[in-house]
Amino acid sequence: MTSICIPYLTSEGQTAKIAEYIADLVIHHDLEAQPVDLKEAPDVDLTAYDGVIVGASIHRGKHDKRLGEFVERNRDVLARIPSAFFSVSLAAHGDTGEAEKYLEDFEQETKWRPSKVALFSGALLYTQYGFLTRHLMKRIAKTKPGELGTDVSRDYVYTEWDGVRRFTEDFLAELVSP
């Protein structure tokens, strides 16, 4: 049976939710899916899989350095089997130029050019932040395009789940096509 690995790194949990959603979609298509938190399993063996969908969030303007290290360690496998990448950020909600720049920087640093890429909007999880982070994120939200919420008494999820579904199904269609 075709098996997909979904290694990811998450800062506040939204990337993990997206990876789990992708895994559910893969399973719904009668394929095997294995989401892997790279913080817990940084040395996952990708050679055991038929395809890979890597995901990571942007935090402080960059992808986690561990993601770059993971890609560099696995570049040969990622080049050999179908692979895709999704990046999660608030910039993807209102400033796609900024989000695309993060992706370009990542591709340039790692020399990895996945066959499919996607930029997904993240979340503002005010109720989960500490006092300082909550107010810093509110200040940032006020300055960003895309009308980000600033009511710190609630959370805002901007992920477009239909876009995640289309990205996943497009990847699967290419993977299983004869």
Mean pLDDT: 92
Continuous helix count: 6
- Give me the secondary-structure category: alpha/beta
How much β-strand is present in the residues?
15-25%
Q: What is the helix content?
A: 40-55%
- The level-1 CATH class of the largest domain: Alpha Beta
Q: Compute the CA-based radius of gyration.
A: 16 Å
**What is the H-and-E element order?**
EHEEEHEHHEEHEH
Whole-number tally of structural domains: 2
Record field, number of beta strands: 8
The termini sit apart by 15 Å
Which superfamily, in CATH terms, is the homologous superfamily of the largest domain?
Flavodoxin domain
Instruction: Provide the CATH architecture of the largest domain.
Output: 3-Layer(aba) Sandwich
CATH topology of the largest domain, by name, is Rossmann fold
For the largest beta-sheet, the strand count, sense and barrel status come to:
6 strands, mixed
Shape: globular
Low-confidence stretches: none
